[in-house]
């Protein structure tokens, strides 16, 4: 019961080449659901792009990329002594953000390669300014490949980066996340002696979505009369129409929203209108029929959804594919078809 992502292969590859060229020193990021494509596929694409390094989210992802990508593998989750699937492959670069962790890693006799991450205003991982300042320029027992900064979106990032550059003047290579192109250009101008490596996922893999098309398959269509009850919850339909059974449910991530970052009342209202319930408890589905997003009959099932089409709407037939609007980072596709 497939939900399929169709990729216009030539145009996607054209975009990837252009995006990589526009970001010198790019470290492609492949993690999680691989931005909809899967981590393994992205690893092959990074190899095809000629990247010398691939950043992944967790140690658990090393196995998906190591056979498909021949360059260095930067693990962005911080090394911790309690993680059990750590790979010490010579191609793996560890991210370290605590003095104790650095000391433990340095006890190994194979000189692990590390990035030293600074705790930015994100407050996620990394050495605090004080602990970073106390580190020796070349800590023993590890090979420092550079420093890393993960920055919040849309703030005065330049000032924060400059601050860290000043804290560790000896570092020549900085791995940065979420800087704008203009900020990167400014940094390079200000510090021609330093190497900046932007870690980029979304802009690379999903920067232009016009070459992606996601389709759900119509599995069944049942005419219903006003007052009929249906679904797990046996709610009655308010109008005559058709219940369409389509592929795509919670297992695919359909209608699962990442928590809304909405911070104003208006943004929250928009978020509710898009994915939440209306006053009568109905929810708008991401499935589009005859040019309109349609209502769920009830919350999506694990692999299928029931949606309502009012009388008069052109009814697609079983086997037809319909458009479905998805968030690529939260959707699992049954098939990825390159056209
Ligand atoms: C996920 C991630 C990225 C890539 O983020 P995009 O917004 O997809 O480009 C970069 N750096 C870190 C530390 C990340 O976790």
Question: Could you explain the architecture of this structure?
Answer:
With 339 residues, this protein is an alpha/beta fold. The chain has two domains: 9-207, TIM Barrel; 210-338, Lyase, Ornithine Decarboxylase, Chain A, domain 1 (Beta Barrel), CATH 2.40.37.10. Helices cover 23% and strands 29% of the residues. It contains nine helices and 18 strands. The protein has an eight-stranded parallel barrel. Strand 7, helix 6 and strand 8 (173-177) form a beta-alpha-beta unit. It is elongated, with a radius of gyration of 24 Å. The model has no long low-confidence stretch (mean pLDDT 93). Bound molecules: pyridoxal-5'-phosphate. Pyridoxal-5'-phosphate (PLP) is lined by residues 29, 31, 76, 150, 177, 199-203.
Features:
339 residues, alpha/beta, TIM Barrel, Lyase, Ornithine Decarboxylase, Chain A, domain 1, 2 domains, eight-stranded parallel β-barrel, six-stranded antiparallel barrel, 29% strand, elongated, binds pyridoxal-5'-phosphate
What is the averaged pLDDT score? 93
Percent range of helical residues: 10-25%
Tally of strands: 18
Give the CATH H-level superfamily of the largest domain: Alanine racemase
Oligomer: single chain
The whole-angstrom Rg is 24 Å
List the bound ligands.
Answer: pyridoxal-5'-phosphate
Q: How many structural domains are formed by the residues?
A: 2
Q: What is the straight-line distance between the termini? A: 20 Å
Give the biggest beta sheet: 8 strands, parallel, barrel
Sequence of strands across the biggest β-sheet: 2-3-4-5-6-7-8-9
Task: State the name of the first-level CATH class of the largest domain.
Answer: Alpha Beta
> How many separate helices?
9
CATH architecture of the largest domain: Alpha-Beta Barrel
Structural class: alpha/beta
What is the general shape?
A: elongated
| Residue windows where pLDDT falls under 50 for at least 5 positions | none
What is the H/E string? EHEHEHEEHEHEHEHEHEEEEHEEEEE
Proportion of residues in β-strands: 25-35%
Find the CATH topology of the largest domain: TIM Barrel
């Amino acid at each position: 019961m497939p939900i399929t992502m169709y990729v216009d292969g030539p145009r996607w590859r054209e975009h990837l080449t252009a995006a990589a060229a526009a970001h010198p020193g790019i470290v492609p990021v492949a993690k999680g659901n691989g931005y909809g494509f899967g981590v393994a596929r992205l690893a092959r694409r990074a190899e095809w792009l000629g990247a010398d390094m691939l950043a992944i989210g967790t140690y658990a992802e090393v196995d998906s990329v190591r056979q498909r990508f021949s360059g260095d593998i930067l693990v962005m989750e911080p090394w911790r002594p309690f993680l059990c699937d750590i790979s010490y492959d010579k191609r793996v670069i560890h991210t370290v953000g605590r003095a104790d962790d650095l000391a433990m890693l340095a006890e190994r006799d194979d000189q692990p390669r590390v990035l030293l991450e600074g705790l930015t205003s994100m407050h996620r991982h990394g050495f605090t300014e004080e602990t970073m300042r106390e580190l020796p320029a070349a800590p023993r027992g590890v090979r420092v490949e550079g420093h890393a900064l993960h920055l919040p979106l849309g703030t005065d990032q330049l000032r924060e980066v400059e601050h860290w550059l000043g804290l560790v003047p000896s570092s020549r290579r900085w791995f940065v996340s979420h800087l704008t192109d203009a900020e990167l250009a400014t940094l390079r101008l200000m510090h021609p002696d330093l190497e900046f490596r932007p870690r980029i996922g979304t802009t690379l893999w999903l920067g232009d979505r016009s070459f992606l098309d996601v389709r759900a398959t119509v599995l069944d269509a049942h005419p219903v009369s006003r007052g009929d009850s249906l679904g797990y919850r046996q709610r009655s339909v308010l109008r005559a129409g058709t219940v369409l059974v389509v592929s795509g449910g919670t297992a695919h991530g359909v209608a699962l929203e990442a928590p809304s970052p909405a911070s104003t009342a208006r943004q929250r209202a928009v978020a509710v209108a898009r994915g939440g319930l209306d006053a009568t408890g109905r929810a708008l589905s991401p499935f589009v029929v005859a040019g309109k997003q349609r209502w769920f009959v009830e919350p999506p099932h694990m692999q299928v959804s029931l949606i309502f089409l009012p009388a008069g709407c052109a009814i697609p037939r079983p086997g037809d594919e319909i458009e479905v609007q998805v968030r690529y980072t939260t959707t699992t596709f049954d098939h990825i078809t390159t056209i």
